[in-house]
Write a structure and sequence with these properties.
By secondary structure, the protein is mostly beta strands. It has helices at about 5, 270-275; strands at about 10-15, 25-30, 35-40, 45-50, 55-60, 65-70, 75-80, 85-90, 95-100, 110-115, 120-125, 135-140, 145-155, 155-160, 165-170, 175-185, 185-200, 205-210, 215-220, 225-230, 235-240, 245-255, 260-265, 285.
Length: about 300
């Protein structure tokens, strides 16, 4: 740990007690300034305003859900589900199918997704049984069909992008590692795949990712009871313990993008673990001393 890391003492609070089976995909919408997140296993979408009031809606898609990213209007989201990519509008509660690059492949689920600095949507897929390396990473540029960018993963989580957009980070969760790739604005191809960070057994599995304005990468730890910040060079600079084992994803939000929101899960926890971690499934807010970057919207 660096001296800078030890000088920052993050505190957390419970932002919402939603009791999610599998809370995921926190998103601070850059157009309407509201926080959205999903309960993947429960098939629910949450929205929280600046006063901490939460609205919850069931979504008319078969679980598991996957991810949400910001559309180009208030309340508009792009959502992944077990049957592809959809456009969702909060005002009408309507959904419209957009694409399904995994059509025809059985037992494949859509998982995390993010939009890069140039407006392309990167979509991870996973083997639903979480046994075989059948998952992939897809890149979808507006106006073009999705193209395969990488494959051979059991579970794809993340992705996240450096502030200048030239590095893509990806959680190879079952492999207990975070990968990095070089990325260009004019090509969907990825170059120079490398291991950015590896997790020890007691750290759990790397799950959702986000990047702060200084280029630090924040990693949620499934079965690790924590969030870790890595420097752009891959050094652990900050570890934030949380009172739940299954921290699933992270995103900066709030008016100044200075609050780190972290989702969590109750799914498949033993009775003993639920007794030890009764807040599992809640949404946490962490004051880290860092600020994030506004998410790019996707124009489908």
């Amino acid at each position: 740990m660096t001296d800078e890391a030890t000088s920052r003492r993050p505190s957390f609070r419970i932002a919402a007690r939603t009791g999610d089976a599998l809370g995921e995909a926190p998103l601070w919408h850059p157009v309407d300034g509201l926080l959205y997140w999903l309960d993947l296993a429960g098939g629910r979408l949450h929205r929280m305003d600046g006063e901490g009031r939460v609205e919850t809606r069931p979504l008319d898609r078969p679980p598991p859900l996957g991810a949400i990213v910001a559309g180009d209007a208030p309340g508009r989201l792009i959502l992944t589900a077990s049957d592809g990519v959809w456009r969702y509008d909060w005002a009408t509660n309507g959904m419209e199918p957009l694409a399904n690059p995994e059509a025809g492949r059985e037992a494949i689920g859509f998982n995390d997704a993010k939009v890069d600095r140039w407006g392309r949507l990167w979509i991870g897929t996973s083997d639903l049984a979480e046994r075989d390396p059948r998952g992939a990473l897809w890149c979808w540029a507006p106006g073009s069909p999705p193209v395969l960018a990488d494959a051979g993963f059991t579970v794809v989580n993340g992705p996240a992008f450096s502030p200048d957009g030239t590095v893509l980070y990806l959680s190879d969760s079952v492999g207990r590692r975070v990968l990095a790739y070089d990325l260009a604005p004019d090509a969907a191809g990825l170059r120079n795949r490398r291991v950015f960070a590896e997790m020890a057994v007691d750290e759990g599995y790397p799950d959702g990712l986000t990047v702060d304005a200084e280029g630090g990468l924040w990693v949620a730890h499934w079965d690790g009871w924590r969030v870790t910040r890595f420097s752009p060079e891959g050094e652990r600079t900050l570890v934030i313990p949380l009172p739940v084992p299954r921290v699933t994803s992270v995103a900066f939000g709030g008016p100044a993008l200075s609050v780190l929101f972290a989702t969590s899960a109750r799914l498949d926890l033993s009775a003993a673990l639920l007794d030890a971690a009764p807040l599992s499934g809640a949404l946490f807010a962490v004051d880290t001393g860092f600020s994030g970057l506004a998410e790019t919207t996707f124009r489908s």
